[in-house]
Amino acid sequence: METQTRRLTRKGQETRARIVAAAAQLMYERGLTEATLEDVRAAAGVSGSQVYHYFADKQALLLAVIEHQTQAVLEMQQPHFAALDTMAGLRQWRDAMVEYQLRLQCRGGCPIGSLGSEVAENNPEARLAVASGFLRWESAIRGGLQTMHARGELDTDPEDLALATLAALQGGLLLTQLQRRVKPLEVALDAMLDLIQTHTTTP
């Protein structure tokens, strides 16, 4: 897919990106089943032939949407990832995640997780794509913890802590979406960061 994208003209790349963005929004709002290719075509302002020019079928478009949502989620947090090697940086990241949910009025949940729940049991290829996206997210969190561990400021396995932090985040996002309040996310992340704090060797 990347090779194909590189071969597109600039206009072609823009058209493809518009289709993916429209599909991502519709799948996020309506769910995978309800977001039809006809809906995507109309939302993107393109013809049916244009959709099929860039994507052989809905599965190909879904995989592109998973990559799109993964990139969007990670880019939103990118300014914070470099600072996850301190407790202050971790707590600033926590605050940013909570603030983002407040701006969304606790609606929508996690764009990657929402797709994952729809494809986990019936679409192995898409499930692996979502799992890969979560691994990238986990890796970004783990990077800061590994730096703390390398400096001698963390006395436990950073890999397990990163996985637990992402799991707490996902559970918090789901409950926040269902309850329409940020407290579940706040409690989940605070509990995880408090645990990390107990394993630090600096004040």
UniProtKB/TrEMBL annotation:
Q: Which UniProt keywords apply?
A: DNA-binding, Transcription, Transcription regulation
Using the record's annotation, list all stretches that form the HTH tetR-type domain.
13-73
Annotated region of DNA binding: 36-55
Which InterPro entries does the annotation name?
Answer: Homeodomain-like_sf, HTH_TetR, Tet_transcr_reg_TetR-rel_C_sf, TetR_C
Tell me which domain of life the UniProt entry assigns to the organism this sequence originates from: Bacteria
- PROSITE patterns, per the entry: HTH_TETR_2
Kindly name one Pfam family recorded for this protein.
TetR_N
Under which name does UniProt file this protein? Answer: TetR/AcrR family transcriptional regulator
